[in-house]
C-alpha cells in the first residue's frame, strides 16, 4: 500500500470506530426501554420525620406551600458547611419579607454530636430561616439516601473523627418536589430571584 492509501484507511477506520462508539453511547442512553427518562426528579427527596433544633418534630408536611433549600452537613465541619450556611443566610437576607415564605434545612450527617441543642447553638450565628434537623441515625440515613447524599465518618489522629459528605444544596418546590441543585456561586440577589420564582 502507498503511504497515501494507508493514511486513507486509517482515517476511514477512525471514522467508522467513532460512528460505532456514537451508536453505542446512544444505545446506552436510550436503554432497552427508551420511554423511561434517564433521570427522574421524583427520585430526589421525599417524606421525612426528624427533629428541629428546638427538639420538636419537623416533617415534610410542615414545609408544604414553601419552596425550600436542603443541604446535609455537620456543625464541626471546618469549611464547606459554615460557608454554605453563610451564603444561604445571605440569600435569605436578600429575600427580605419573602424569606418567611421559604425555608432552608440543614440536615446533620453527624447525629452523634449534633443534638438539637448543639444545632441550636451553632445556628444562632446564621439566618433564622435555617432549620437544623437531627434525629436517630437510622432516620437520618434514610433521609440522606432519599436525597442521594453520601456521608462517611473519617477517623482522625487522636481518636477524633470528621465527616465526608455530599455538599450539594437542593432546591425543592412548594410541593416538596426536587427542582435542581441550587448554586450559591453567584450574587445573593440572583440566587434569591431564582428561589422567589417558586413562591
Ligand atoms: Cu461540611
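Q: What amino acid sequence fits the structure above?
A:
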Amino acid at each position: 500500500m502507498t503511504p497515501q492509501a494507508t493514511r486513507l484507511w486509517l482515517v476511514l477506520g477512525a471514522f467508522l470506530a467513532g460512528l460505532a462508539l456514537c451508536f453505542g453511547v446512544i444505545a446506552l442512553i436510550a436503554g432497552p426501554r427508551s420511554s423511561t427518562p434517564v433521570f427522574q426528579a421524583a427520585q430526589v427527596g421525599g417524606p421525612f420525620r426528624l427533629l428541629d433544633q428546638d427538639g420538636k418534630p419537623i416533617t415534610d408536611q410542615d414545609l408544604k406551600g414553601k419552596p425550600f433549600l436542603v443541604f446535609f452537613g455537620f456543625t464541626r465541619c471546618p469549611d464547606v458547611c459554615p460557608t454554605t450556611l453563610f451564603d444561604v443566610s445571605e440569600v435569605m437576607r436578600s429575600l427580605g419579607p419573602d424569606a418567611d415564605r421559604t425555608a432552608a434545612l440543614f440536615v446533620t450527617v453527624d447525629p452523634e454530636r449534633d443534638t438539637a441543642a448543639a444545632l441550636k447553638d451553632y445556628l444562632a450565628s446564621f439566618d433564622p430561616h435555617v432549620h437544623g434537623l437531627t434525629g436517630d441515625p437510622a432516620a437520618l440515613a434514610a433521609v440522606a439516601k432519599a436525597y442521594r447524599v453520601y456521608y462517611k465518618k473519617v477517623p482522625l489522629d487522636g481518636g477524633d473523627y470528621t465527616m465526608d459528605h455530599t455538599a450539594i444544596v437542593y432546591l425543592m418546590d412548594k410541593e416538596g418536589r426536587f427542582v435542581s441543585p441550587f448554586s450559591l456561586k453567584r450574587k445573593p440577589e440572583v440566587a434569591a430571584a431564582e428561589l422567589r420564582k417558586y413562591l
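Q: And what stands out in the fold?
A: Strands lie at 49-51, 57-59, 68-73, 103-108, 130-133, 151-155, 161-165, 170-172, 178-181.
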